[in-house]
Design a protein that fits this description.
Keywords: Endonuclease, Hydrolase, Nuclease. It comes from Saccharopolyspora antimicrobica. GO terms for molecular function: endonuclease activity; nucleic acid binding; zinc ion binding. This is HNH endonuclease. With 91 residues, the protein is an alpha+beta fold. The protein has one domain. Strands 1-2 form a two-stranded antiparallel sheet.
Length: 91
């Protein structure tokens, strides 16, 4: 059996494909994610680990949620991160 390769290889690509197919809403801000944007765009799709990899989180579908690149970067490796409250109108 092959050794787990982390965030590269077929197992990770399967997790990302399942995540894109099931949910396209950022779990941090609640807005829709456009999966067709280039990877470097701030509102592009990324997989955010609930328990960060640096703190022992596994790269499985149970530990991954969809997020915008900007939202994922703001959260960083914080475990107790609370997303900002959504307001009733844009400010």
């Amino acid at each position: 059996m092959a050794r787990w390769q982390g965030r590269k290889g077929r197992p990770w690509r399967r997790v990302i494909a399942q995540l894109k197919a099931t949910n396209r809403t950022c779990w941090l801000c609640g807005h829709a994610i456009d999966v067709d944007l280039p990877v470097t765009h701030p509102l592009s799709f990324t997989a955010d680990h609930i328990a960060p990899r640096s703190r022992g989180g596994a790269p499985t579908l149970d530990n991954v949620r969809p997020a915008h690149r900007r939202c994922n970067s703001q959260r960083g490796a914080k475990v107790d991160f609370r997303p900002p409250l959504r307001t009733s109108r844009p400010w």
